[in-house]
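Design review, sub-item: ligand-bound model
Attendees: FS, YL, KQ
YL presented the inputs for the zinc ion complex:
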Amino acid sequence: MAQFKCIRCGQTAPTNDNYVCPCGGLYEVHHDFGDISLDHFDVKLSNIGSTWSSGVWRYKELINPELDPRHIVSRPEGNTNLYKRQKVSEYAGIDGIYMKHEGENPSGSFKDRGMTVGVSVAVERGKRKVACASTGNTSASMAAYAAQAGLQGIVFVPEGMIAYGKLAQALAYGSKVVQVKGNFDDAMGLIRNGAKRLGFYILNSINPWRVEGQKSIVFEMLQQRRWKSPDWIVVPAGNLGNTSAFGKALRELKQLGLIDRMPRIAAIQAEGANPFYKLWHSVDKKLEPMKPETIASAIKIGNPVSWEKALRSIRETDGVVEQVTDNQILDAKAIIDASGVGCEPASAASLAGARKLRDMGVIAKDDQVVCVLTGNLLKDPETTINYHIKGVSARYSNKPVVVEANLDRIEAVLSQGNDPAPGQEVKNLGD
Ligand SMILES: *Cc1c(COP(=O)(O)O)cnc(C)c1O
Ligand SMILES: [Zn+2]
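KQ shared the predicted structure:
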């Protein structure tokens, strides 16, 4: 039987609604795995259209073996593509760089992978009200799965700081949206303190089942690579749920003998929201909460709940934590976008980070690198449009032209031909 096990003191507990050990450490799910062979996952893949072909539930034995399949709430999710693009390889200076596009999940972000598991457990446990604090994508995902399961969803979002595509989803899918006058960390604090009183089942990534679901990003990426580990997995890091999940996935695969070598995890933060970066480079390895500031709203988090789990992931995989500026994030996003793949701002921290780590000589030119693109381009159209239309330091902007409705004028404008192709660097602007 699965149990909760404290990440800090190692105490075990039944898998109930307490996610925090009396010692203050977070619980994670501890499994008693049976015999598992990799062939099994290939066989499941052929059940097209069934729950078992979901990119999450295909790995049920590694995620929640005991869950009664009748309680599964699935879209299905996952089965996201792994892309390789010349433009991106050149930008990073790494030939073997790939993008695992989690923006291709049903609600447009990787959050669906954790949410399908969290909501299924909520259903199994007979919950009626599910809640989360969110920078946007968790609320969009939870709202969708709550609607499908017939549960009441309540989401707490920071007022005025959530991208429009995400707010639109939460409203449209019918969750109660509470706009908190404060940032994500304030909203998270309210949920943690208020859940019992308000009768909420919490679906943030402090819920250990969310982390279990997100392990499937690694499982699926490895299956797509015929179970050959890359050298690096590069992931944007905010609340650190993914960083935690990836380390746990790799540890379990290694323990089961299903992989022989672990990729190294590189967690990338925005410079203005970098408490985990600072922790990693500190002596005492303690998290100092901060007031976060970054254009990449999905990683605008100053007090990440999963820092202890994430620290273990970095240590166990011989990983690194790096930071990038907002300009580096937006330029990397413009390259990913112009390659035809596209992503939301926070996602591009992965490519910006890979490029920086390559420049620093940490990643080698011939390393195999998988960047996780966490969310869809359409989540945050405002940031993209601002970059291309008014971006002052936008190196790869693709400005629209305004022309009278007259073919001669249009022909004249189009034949000027000195507009750089999108993705091509604009040199010597203004000098
Ligand atoms: C939630 C989210 C993140 C941050 O992931 P964590 O697991 O909280 O570190 C990054 N990018 C996008 C698009 C997200 O939705
Ligand atoms: Zn404990």
